[in-house]
Amino acid sequence: MKNLITALGIMLLLVACSDKKEEFSGNPIVDGWYADPEGVVFDNEYWIYSTLSDFPLGADSTEFTGLQKKTRAIHQVYNIQTYMDAFSSKDMVHWTKHPKVLSIENIKWLEFALWAPAAVQANGKYYLFFGGNDIQNDEQYGGIGVAIADNPAGPFKDALGKPLIDKIVNGAQPIDQFVFKDDDGSYYMYYGGWHHCNMVKLSPDLLSLVPFDDGSYYKTITPENYVEGPFMLKRNNKYYFMWSEGSWVGSDYSVAYAIADSPFGPFKRIGKILQQDDTVGTGAGHHSVIQIPGKDEWYIVYHRHPLGDTIPHHREVCIDRMNFDENGFITRTLTQTGRYGIGIGYRKELGNHPWRYHFGQEQPRWRIGIRIHTGKRKIITYH
Description:
Elements (H helix, E strand, L loop, with lengths): L1 H16 L16 E9 L2 E8 L30 E7 L6 E8 L11 E8 L2 E8 L10 E7 L7 E2 L19 E4 L5 E5 L6 E5 L6 E2 L8 E2 L7 E8 L2 E8 L8 E7 L8 E6 L6 E11 L6 E9 L9 E7 L19 E7 L17 E7 L11
Antiparallel strand pairs: 1-2, 2-3, 3-4, 5-6, 6-7, 7-8, 9-10, 10-11, 11-12, 11-13, 14-15, 15-16, 16-17, 18-19, 19-20, 21-22
């Protein structure tokens, strides 16, 4: 009993000597309208690259020269999508903004619609793949490009002076690229809109396509219900292929997945792992996944529309925990992200901060608990 009283006294002292409010990143994790987030880890630092989805908060339209130009953009907002911002963090709680890591000034063939970054560290450099100009047919100029920088914060500069992929192959619009490095050092890129997904193999310098063993350059791997936004990860020698399905402006926008023994598939759809809760927000999709270095700990990074906001391009970046069950399937588990340390605390979940979104319900409530954690990014669940 004496030991118990002593332990409780120490914990109460910790509470008295520290900020009682727990720190959580909350969702959305950053301010502003961003979409298609690419989450990566570079040298034990977390980075998110994203599409500029709509006018930055407080921005003046005169800052966007593209609005004064006559282009073939289907939507006027595409004309402001001429640069990308990035965000970095040591703990996935506090984020630093890096503005305009890639911009139209460094891509001579880009006119508008700079979309869906895919970031890779290789060959002592940083590569940022991107979609540009939203081509609707092979007569229009644009597609998937690649830029290079010496620093993850840029500035990234176009490496080729032209798109890497500039044609519609197998019905796949050249957008939404993701680059995956397999254990043997091979780099594959998965991409495609319009309900079609292709796979290509990249050269070691990541600046050209090389043929597969059968001599082909493009393989179609489209799974059931695929729309856009492919992503690949490898865990326990299994390939997890993920994609977005539904309409990007609709309530059915969501993320589904498949598991295969090969990066080539076949990818048989298993089910959804991310979809909206209409009491929280709408249109959750176009995701990526971050693995905590050295751990079997995973986070899904995605965008969604705020609840009640009907403007299609008002999208926000969110992060939530992604869990696997004992059989390797992705589960629908709710958790909270926090910082590391020791203490007793309380917090009240209200309104938009923090969001408990994705895999189930979200409920504003008081939560009380003890948090004792010894490693970075420990997940604490309060009851």
